[in-house]
Write a structure and sequence with these properties.
Blueprint: H1 2-26, H2 29-49, H3 53-79, H4 86-95, H5 100-112, H6 117-142, H7 156-174, H8 176-204, H9 208-236, H10 238-246, H11 249-258, H12 268-277, H13 287-313, H14 319-335, H15 338-348, H16 350-370, H17 379-393
Helix pairs in contact: 1-3, 1-14, 2-3, 2-6, 3-14, 4-9, 4-13, 5-6, 5-9, 7-14, 7-17, 8-14, 8-16, 9-10, 9-13, 10-13, 11-13, 11-16, 15-16
Length: 394
């Protein structure tokens, strides 16, 4: 039953991403960002009050609906970033994720006070849902209008197909290295999610407390690094920043691979001292923790650089379509990974999957070393391509 629910959730999210880019370029982006938070808030509230599978599925539907508005919501945020300061702007935006430390700390307090895990999780879902709904009200009242929705000169279906064709063509012709890297990275991330779900949780056996500490430390460190990456991006450009960030990807996977042989990086007496101070604190000196946390940290910095890259290189009017189609392609390749991963895991175990990820990450680094990540068209040329394509469709 759990497998059916997960499949349903991923399927509905994928469908949402398929239409998300088009809606973001055709509808009012401020309204889409408000709808994102309303839908997420309702979904989390349903999770908080759910007591059967029917309610859980309903909550998944509302949370999955956020992907339908996601590209437009992200495009609205990018519209409000100065193009010449896209790096530091995205760095500040991503650094704001550190506020989730408050939620992690609160969840830890609930558990320490003896609240059962399920009840503590439901209470966090309720608080999260309320915060999302309050955020949607703030966005509706205080954000700029976001521009008017475009009036179509043809049917929605024809316009949708035309926009998808133009966007797909631009991605393949103007962003060949970007799309190649992203698709290989999608397969890599799909394998990693499978590894993290089974091998890491089952073989390495992190406790709830250890995972909480891991997330808190990762988020805390990400704040100054996001700001640093943003400044570096604006000063040295997207290609150099992206190569620098991605060069750490295979290293993080190598650390996770070595964790099967070396559990801690310090003597065992220090491990006992740390656990005596706070149960689960020894996780910070485990090889697996360092590998997983640096991977999570690198993913955050990777997202910062990619979003700044999108703002710097893609016309605002078409950025939602570009993000939507890219997301569809990335997730399609990521969804290809679980089946072969499960077969390899059953035959050879988790470590071999980590070696495959290391190989894929190394291939991406080789591509980035010899090919520029920058598009082969400037932003004015891209704007003209989208404009001419739309006129031809009309």
């Amino acid at each position: 039953m759990i497998g059916v629910v997960f499949t349903f959730a991923r399927g509905t999210s994928f469908i949402g991403r398929f239409f998300s880019g088009y809606l973001g370029d055709r509808l009012n982006r401020k309204n889409l960002t408000v709808l994102t938070y309303v839908s997420a808030g309702i979904g989390y509230l349903i999770f908080g009050f759910s007591n059967n599978m029917l309610f859980i599925v309903l909550g998944i539907i509302f949370l999955s609906a956020t992907t339908l508005f996601a590209s437009g919501s992200a495009a609205y945020m990018l519209d409000n970033l100065p193009r010449e300061l896209s790096g530091i702007g995205m760095g500040l935006y991503m650094a704001g994720r550190a506020f989730s430390l408050l939620g992690l700390a609160l969840f830890g307090l609930f558990l320490n006070f003896g609240l059962p895990f399920v009840q503590a999780a439901q209470l966090m879902f309720i608080l999260t849902g309320v915060s999302y709904l309050l955020n949607s009200v703030v966005r509706f009242v205080f954000l700029d209008s976001g521009g008017r929705a475009e009036k179509l000169k043809e049917s929605v279906l024809v316009d949708f197909i035309q926009q998808y064709k133009i966007t797909f063509k631009v991605l393949l012709t103007a962003f060949p290295v970007f799309i190649l890297v992203l698709l290989i990275d999608g397969i890599s991330d799909g394998i990693y999610r499978y590894v993290n779900l089974f091998y890491v949780n089952e073989a390495l056996g992190f406790s709830i407390g250890s995972i909480n500490v891991m997330l808190m430390i990762t988020l805390l460190i990400s704040v100054p690094l996001n700001l640093k990456v943003g400044r570096f991006f604006d000063k040295h450009g997207s290609h150099k920043t992206i190569v620098l960030i991605y060069s750490f990807m295979p290293v993080t996977m190598l650390l996770l691979y070595l964790s099967q042989y070396y559990e801690y990086i310090v003597p065992i007496n220090i491990v006992h001292i740390l656990d005596a101070l706070t149960p689960g604190l020894s996780v910070i000196v485990s090889t697996a923790f360092i590998g997983i946390s640096t991977k999570s940290l690198n993913d955050i910095l990777w997202a910062t650089a990619l979003n700044a890259y999108v703002r710097k290189t893609i016309p605002s009017k078409s950025v939602s379509s570009m993000m939507g189609v890219t997301s569809v392609l990335y997730n399609a390749f990521m969804l290809m990974a679980p089946l072969p991963s499960s077969i390899i895991y059953a035959l050879y175990g988790g470590p071999i999957l980590l070696l495959i990820i290391i190989i894929l990450n190394t291939i991406i680094l080789i591509i980035l070393k010899f090919r520029s990540f920058l598009p082969n068209r400037n932003i004015d040329e891209l704007r003209e391509i989208f404009s001419n394509g739309t006129q031809e469709g009309n």
